[in-house]
User: Fold this.
Amino acid sequence: MSVDGREFRSALGRFATGVTVITAVHLGRRHGMTANAFMSVSLAPPLVAVSVGHQARIHALLEASGEFGVSVLREDQEAIARHFAGHPVEGLEVPLRFRGDIPLVAGAIAQMACRLVEAHPAGDHTIFLGEATWLEHGRGMPLLFHEGRLFGMEHRPLADDARPLPFPLDVTAAPELSRQGHTLVADYP
Assistant:
């Protein structure tokens, strides 16, 4: 049985993600792309992954450069997200900063420079695995992507007395996390 591509995309759109701008430079050519297919992979070593379509202009730059940047956008940076998604905003000047040659979006809530470790073809995309060589993060609320639209985030915990989750997750140390019908399952040793 085959899954319809549009239905597959629609189902995946139900998964809310943050929004990043992935950047690369090679032989003086700079390019950025809005991406929500970004994730952490490992803490030791510090690895991240980004999935990029084979037809994306940044694809060849990522392969050739051997390094890339990741900027996690703030909720007030929607115009920047649209710009790097191929919908330029007239008059928009994207504030950039640099880590070495790697351009990063200034004011993003998190920024990192990564060394390309591996590239894995996967269907019509390539998953680029990078090791963070530098990072910086600040305060702010993230820009979110859900069902094909960009959103800000209401800073409202599920419960009035909610506190940040312990890390690594240890449900035996915080049994109250399963109250109010929200179940937490941890897969940590």
